[in-house]
Amino acid sequence: MLNRYPLWKNLLILLVIGIGAIYALPNLYPEDPAVQISGTRGSIEITNTDLNRAEQALEKAGISVLEASLEGNSGLIRLLADDQQLAAREVIQQSLGEKYVVALSQAATTPEWLVNLGARGVNLGLDLRGGVHFLMEVDMDAAVKQQLEVTASEIRATLRKERLRFRKVAVEAGQIEVLLASAEDLDKARRLLQVDRQDYTFNADDSGLLLITMNEQAIRNLEDYAVDQNLTTLRNRVNELGVAEPLVQRSGRNRIVVELPGVQDTASAKRILGATANLEFRLEANRNAETFDTETFGFRDQPNRTAVLERDIITTGNNVANASVGFDENNKPQVNIRLNGQGGRFMSDATKNNVGRSMAVLFIEHKTRTRIVEQEGERIEVREPYTEQGIISLATIQSQLGSSFRITGSGSVQEASELSLLLRAGALAAPIYFVEERTIGPSLGQKNIEQGVTSIQIGLALVVIFMLAWYRVFGIFACVALTTNLVLLVALLSVLGATLTLPGIAGIVLTLGMAVDANVLINARIKEEMYHRGLSPQNAIHSGYEKAFATILDANITTFLVAIILFSIGTGPVKGFAVTLSLGLLTSMFTAILVTRLMVNWVYGGRRIERISL
């Protein structure tokens, strides 16, 4: 019988529409503006006491709180208005102090039963709402100092190998100072150290002190390397966070812009992105070691305990190929480390003749303190950089180590996880500081959303008016299919975790126009079959859908190819447009052909009719 679907096909189409409606539903629940609080370290847990202090500070500042709750190791404070977020963050940061990270966030209001089904709203880009923008600055002075420290360690090793005694090899005031035990060895040491060090200038002063400095070209090359390496590391860290369509790019000589659309845990993102943590593996110094060859460090979690370590560094976190979290025989967290080829050789050479001695894992973290000062009646944020160094593990070398080993002393599982993430993503080549943190203003983002929704509504309304006026009952079918198409498209964007931007909204508007175009082709074909070829209404409907299908498929395939090209070679906004356009083509084919046919079959199929309203 013409124009009848079997029961299984009807049920399948309705099932797809029902599932689409469920997964599009979370977008009807707007997010609450919020401020998220977490510790500067993964081991610091936020407690109800911390939340109460934050709430009291906000209440004193006249900022209304909707709700405060604990979520894992962090706290979330929901606010009543978007324009209170920035003020709330400043108040809470001043109240809680430097051990806490306070970041802007958006808190979901999706019902729990939808969350349990895996349903979530569409991620909104920075031009809409829900993202965070960081402007970060690379500390070039620290990059130069780190390189000089590495060179100083190499110089000490070279002098020992050549049996040239020295009293001092240290980095002072942007240069390496080498003081030999005998002034007669100065020329020999200079010739020896100049080999393969064309980037350095060697000078001696009247006291017999050899001064080694980097030349200007080497410093410029090092600065470029530091920024490029930090870019790569930040991209790796963003990938570990699982952020959709992030932006990480260089800005000017020594700054990096990081934009994270749709991020919920902004406090964690800020902590992980800004962490300039690195590891150094050093031997514990012998009791008779010279003081200028050693340094004393405290333990990270035991400030009253100290150990004396050699200045020479065996290897650093830069040579870590992979890192993962595990548990030792006492069920305490540990970090399993695998070094690359170079790091493995360094570790093997250092431990081969030092079995029975202790090796320390030194954790180094560069941070900044920010405080608000008033200058000429204006509140200005002042940044003060500082470095924290602490031993996280000191263990006896039982046998010669290779490229794989483990370190303990991380404290909690979360702290071990963060350490392994940082090592896995790569160490920063130089410390990096947050210069600016902001969102695209909540009011502007809301205005963009409203304008985008208005554009979709106007486009949909104009199409509905035209279809109803021109095609009557078949116009109703097309309008229902068009609405279903929009629901399915939103559901797909939600399920895939795509980020919706203003160009993406433009793709949705274009999709609506192309979707109704398919129905226009079908309806025009039915008219032609019925009025010009003299077919009966049932045969005209059947023939119209059959013959229009090839044209619709051809048009959609060519547009889909263009969308793939745009996605392949385009930047972020262009990719957003391409994603919504390509997904819209798929939903359009489904709704324009199958959904409208389903409704036509229900109304006209399986019975004798003399005319149709078209």
From TrEMBL:
The keyword Nucleotide-binding does not apply. Forms a complex with SecF. Part of the essential Sec protein translocation apparatus which comprises SecA, SecYEG and auxiliary proteins SecDF-YajC and YidC. Belongs to the SecD/SecF family. SecD subfamily. It is found in: Cell membrane. It is a multi-pass membrane protein. Residues 227-284 form the Protein translocase subunit SecDF P1 domain. The chain crosses the membrane at residues 452-471, 476-498, 504-526, 547-569, 581-604. Pfam families: Sec_GG, SecD-TM1, SecD_1st, SecD_SecF_C, SecDF_P1_head. It comes from Marinospirillum insulare. Residues 2-104 form the SecD export protein N-terminal TM domain. The gene is secD. InterPro entries: SecD, SecD-TM, SecD/SecF_arch_bac, SecD/SecF_CS, SecD_1st, SecD_SecF_C, SecD_SecF_C_bact, SecDF_P1_head. Residues 435-602 form the Protein export membrane protein SecD/SecF C-terminal domain. SUPFAM superfamilies: Multidrug efflux transporter AcrB transmembrane domain (SSF82866). This is Protein translocase subunit SecD. Residues 298-430 form the SecDF P1 head subdomain domain. PANTHER family: PROTEIN TRANSLOCASE SUBUNIT SECD, PROTEIN-EXPORT MEMBRANE PROTEIN SEC. Keywords: Cell membrane, Membrane, Protein transport, Translocation, Transmembrane, Transmembrane helix, Transport. Part of the Sec protein translocase complex. Interacts with the SecYEG preprotein conducting channel. SecDF uses the proton motive force (PMF) to complete protein translocation after the ATP-dependent function of SecA.
